[in-house]
Design brief:
Helices cover 35% and strands 16% of the residues. The protein is α+β, with helices and mostly antiparallel strands. Strands 8-11-12-13 form a four-stranded mixed β-sheet. A three-stranded mixed β-sheet has the order 3-4-5. A two-stranded antiparallel sheet has the order 1-2. A hairpin with a 2-residue loop joins strand 6 and strand 7. The radius of gyration is 25 Å and the shape is elongated. The N and C termini lie far apart (103 Å).
Length: 303
Amino acid sequence: MPMLTPLPISLARPLAVAQARERGVSPRRLRAPDLTRPFRGVVCTRQLDFVGRCHAYMQRLPPGGFVSGPTAARLYGVPLPAELERDDAPLDVSVPAPGRAPRVSGVRGHSVRIHLGDVGSVAGVPASAPARWWCELSSHLDVEALVTVGDALLHRRLGGTRLDGLAAAVDRYPSRRWRRRLVEALPLLDDRAESPQESRLRTRLVRAGVSGMIANPTITTATGRVYRGDLTFPEQRVILEYQGDVHRPVHRFRADMTRQLDLQADGWTVVYLGPGDLDDHQLVRRVRAILALHTAPPPSPPS
């Protein structure tokens, strides 16, 4: 096998073919098997991860273009459903209308109307601002998933986003097709939520008509210890705790047992829920039954 001509160090990052030619790389060398081609017209000397693919497409980005929707959300580090985080998932790229949507293999192009503040930058890549990409996700996610992502966005204050900012983004978001999902998800958001599963649990209960819960309030027991409960019902003194399948070390398990004993000694009932409980059709009925057991009966009328 003939020895390949050494490549300039600049090809360690993605470059447009035209730029590589300017650096003296011949057309034949650019076709060699040791180069990757993440997108047509772009070459690199290594395989690229998701962020690398975003940077690679910057070599072909149309004027005014930016990544959007699931791609922007991933750059901000928000967990998304697995199907949107596949390694081979296409990049969502938008251009301001009336510009033509990109038509490139590995890219899902959009021509969109934008407003002032709709586009920013993350990880060195032009991207939809958080409030906008949350709206853009409505074409990919159902209401429950929108709440889960929106909770994470608000809890982390990504881009300084607050609930009123999301509401304003929904009002001006040009797409009408998925507006119902956004309007339904908005009042379900809670910036105190600290995990996706906690958000899912709260959303399912609220949509089923269960009310009176507070996410992650501070609880001080008679011993002076301070705790937080995932979903707390102060009136019934019931705490719903979500526990994942991750194996807990012995010291953490013992600390949780001490916490549970301390809370129950103060009159709280701690109920643990796991992954299987979230998808159990009996979930709401069981939670209602637990709350009913701890709801004080109304006072008897005077005789």
